[in-house]
Amino acid sequence: LPVPPMSIRFDQAAGTLSPAGPELTRRMSDLEGLFLDQNAWRTAVADGDPIVYSVVSSLVPEADRELPQSITTIQPGSTGGEFWMTKGHQHPNHQGEIYLGISGRGGLLMFDGTDTRWVDMTPGTIGYIPPGWAHRSVNVGGKPYSFLAVYPGGAGHDYGWVLEYGLGQRVWRQDDGVAFGGYFAEAS
Ligand code: 6PG
Ligand code: NI
Questions:
Q1: Which residues surround ligand 2, an ion (CB under 5 A)?
Q2: How do residues 99-144 score in pLDDT, each as one tens digit?
Q3: Looking at domain 9-182, which CATH architecture does it have?
Q4: 92 near 111, Cβ under 8 Å?
Q5: What ipTM is given for this predicted complex?
């Protein structure tokens, strides 16, 4: 259903939108196949199945020609040495998207099937996702990382693409920061 012209309250400190639409919570058990270390993933599921990230949306519908927004908050953490992250997806119609960093320290990992790009996301950074670039967000800090996303309502979300092709690189926790490595496991 279309919505009328409206004001949406964006509370930067709380990371909320109001009036609010659907809210989505992704727990560790929802993230099968994401982390390279599957045993570490299984252990984390058995060990309390923590919330990894949540997404709150405004009332703007995901429909053609609409321009919905949502705020994603990724909790700090790592599993098997990989920083906590979103599932990641490709927009099937290859629509572009913008992100605005709100709080915490994160990054935007993008992959077009050949090249990988990383954009550091801190409060105030606008990250641009060009058409055709699959994207995943990663929390590389010690606090929750939140960002606002604005995207075409008809964009759709293809999660299978990322499961098949990956995102080019993985993002590993290091004592002194972040390290990038190959996406698929070495043949053993
Ligand atoms: C979108 C945005 C963004 C994203 C969330 C959760 O297209 O809607 O990229 O809102 O959906 O950050 O990430 P996943 O959709 O990959 O779980
Ligand atoms: Ni997207």
A1: 97
A2: 999 999 999 999 999 999 999 999 999 999 999 999 999 999 999 9
A3: Sandwich (2.60)
A4: no
A5: 0.98
Domain spans, the chain? 9-182
Task: Name the residue type at position 33.
Answer: G
List beta partners, residue 70.
57, 149
Partners of 72 in the beta sheet? 55, 147
Residues in the chain: 188
Query: Which pLDDT tens digit goes with each residue over 157-185?
Result: 999 999 999 999 999 999 889 999 999 87
Among 57, 73, 85, smallest CA distance to 146 is for: 73
The C-alpha atoms of residue 6 and residue 57 are separated, in whole angstroms, by 14
C-alpha angle 22-158-30 in degrees, rounded to nearest 5: 60
Task: Report how far ligand 2's centroid is from the alpha carbon of 45 (Å).
Answer: 26
Cα 188 to middle of ligand 2, angstroms: 33
